[in-house]
Design brief:
single chain, 510 residues, alpha+beta, Thrombin, subunit H, Pdz3 Domain, 6-stranded antiparallel beta barrel, 15 helices
Length: 510
């Protein structure tokens, strides 16, 4: 027989079970009724693990999309295709380039005309028909056409500037749509930008691509249509990954406010690989204004040959870090010579701007009008010195012919030599005294000079049996040397005199 104590606990357990079942049943009914009344809560993306974006993300994406759409509508009408035509004459042989027939059949060559056609883009910057584009888009063209609303207009050249690869052309039409000019200095790396142009064909007019600003201040690039180091002389490119292809040259790079911040200029390779370059609009504004007003660009000029300061040179000259531009040579009767600038000075500052490298110095001096009075700071004998210089006017032809780092020449480049005037500090560094010549400061690996055992620190005292005492003389003696000719160098290395014969290789073909 069950004891009273056990019977009590059994009844209590049954009672608790009945109460719990009643509570759970009532809660489940309430949850079920709530789910019916609020179906959105029951199928929440968070609850079901959905990949769909939440409302805030959708709002952000739609806002960005609307910004792209708005800018494209604003800018596209002001970006136009530019077609160019140039008539060239070619001398052809009846058997073309077949070596066998050319050797045994002496037929006279014939002259044939050929029309070369080009495609680019331009940006309308003035409602009266002024269009900003790249110089290489219209360079040497006999005819230039601009298409607007399927109507073709003949354009005239207002002015060109090969050194920045910019040009202004004009068509006879008014009330044209324009694009607002922005401030490229305010651009930030990572900022969204749109590229607008006409890639590959007139059929693809007003193509819009999006990307970000990948970098700013790019220079030293062998790109563009100028006459500088393989390309544009004055470089301060905006780099972007917005798709830019052939035909986009001269088109617009704009920010999300619809402001023109750059002129698309160049790509790496033959098609877009995520690396494109644009001329900053702040540089283009000044060039454009001068071209429209005068048809040409006037630039300040110092008359110095300069090179970058690397870590080793900084140590030699007592600088804490590489900075400024080292003066390799001062031209006679130039603004620099009259201001007291000397070889081996390091230009640290112009006006209120600290000088970082040669490219920055070149751009900064060129930005001043001729006859400007400018204060500069140079580093001399391990201390700074203040000078004043009255800038001259840069001759455009000289700038095009001699845009390279001054201690280089076309033949010197191919030989693989870098030389510098022999100043007191370099003389002490390399152990020379009472000597004349130009000092070899670098030899390109696997170059002709390297293979013929020219070394850093060698003192070149003669070229083809003619004495040299400066970079200018060295440059002049190599200026007329042609490919495959032999250059004889007399070299002093320590206490030894050596002769080295170097054959000038052919220039690289692009």
């Amino acid at each position: 027989m069950m004891s009273r104590n056990k019977a009590f606990w059994l009844v209590l357990g049954i009672f608790i079970g009945i109460v719990s079942w009643a509570v759970l049943t009532s809660n489940w009914e309430a949850i079920h009724q709530k789910a019916i009344a609020e179906p959105e809560a029951a199928v929440s993306p968070v609850q079901l693990g959905s990949n769909e974006p939440v409302e805030s993300e959708l709002v952000g994406l739609e806002s960005l999309s609307r910004a792209f759409t708005r800018v494209a509508k604003q800018v596209s009408p002001a970006v136009v295709p530019i077609n160019s035509e140039a008539v060239v004459k070619r001398r052809i042989h009846p058997f073309f380039d077949d070596e066998f027939f050319r050797r045994f059949f002496n037929f006279p060559e014939q002259e044939q005309q050929e029309i070369l056609r080009g495609l680019g883009s331009g940006v309308i910057v003035n409602s009266d028909g002024y269009i900003l584009t790249n110089n290489h888009v219209i360079d040497e063209a006999d005819q230039i056409y601009v298409t607007i609303d399927r109507e073709k207009y003949t354009a005239t050249v207002v002015g060109t500037d090969p050194l920045t690869d910019l040009a202004v052309i004009k068509i006879d039409r008014t009330d044209l749509p324009t694009v607002r000019l922005g401030d490229s200095e305010e651009l930030e790396v990572g900022e969204w930008v749109l590229a607008v142009g006409n890639p590959f064909s007139n059929i693809l007019q007003n193509t819009v691509t999006a990307g970000i600003v990948s970098a700013k201040g790019r220079s030293g690039l062998a790109i563009g249509g100028g006459q500088g180091r393989g390309g544009v002389t004055y470089q301060d490119f905006i780099q972007t990954d917005a798709a830019i292809n052939p035909g986009n040259s001269g088109g617009a790079l704009v920010n999300l406010r619809g402001e023109l911040v750059g002129i698309n200029t160049a790509i790496v390779g033959q098609a877009n690989v995520g690396i494109g370059f644009a001329i900053p609009i702040n540089m283009a504004k000044n060039i454009m204004a001068q071209l429209i007003a005068d048809g040409k660009v006037s630039r300040g000029y110092m008359g110095v040959q300069i090179q970058d300061v690397d870590e080793n040179l900084a140590k030699i000259y007592g600088l804490k870090k590489p900075q400024g531009a080292l003066v390799a040579n001062v031209q006679e009767d130039s603004p620099a010579s009259r201001a007291g600038i000397k070889a081996e000075d390091i230009i640290l500052k112009i006006g209120e701007t600290d000088i970082i490298d040669v490219d920055q110095l070149r751009r900064l001096v060129a930005s001043y009008p001729p006859d400007s009075q400018v204060e500069i700071v140079v580093w001399r004998d391990e201390k700074s010195k203040n000078l004043k210089i009255k800038l001259g006017e840069l001759d455009a032809e000289v700038a095009q012919e001699s845009p390279r780092t001054p201690d280089q020449t076309s033949a010197g480049d191919r030989l693989g030599l870098r030389v510098q005037d022999l100043g007191d500090q370099l003389m002490r560094r390399y152990g020379y005294s009472n000597e004349t010549g130009v000092i070899v400061t670098a030899v390109e690996r696997n170059s002709v000079a390297d293979r013929e055992d020219i070394r850093e620190g060698d003192l070149i005292q003669a070229v083809n049996r003619k004495s040299v005492t400066s970079v200018r003389e060295f440059t002049a003696l190599l200026a007329d040397v042609k490919e495959n000719e032999i250059v004889l160098l007399r070299v002093k290395r320590g206490s030894n005199n050596l002769f080295r014969a170097l054959r000038v290789p052919a220039a690289d073909k692009e």
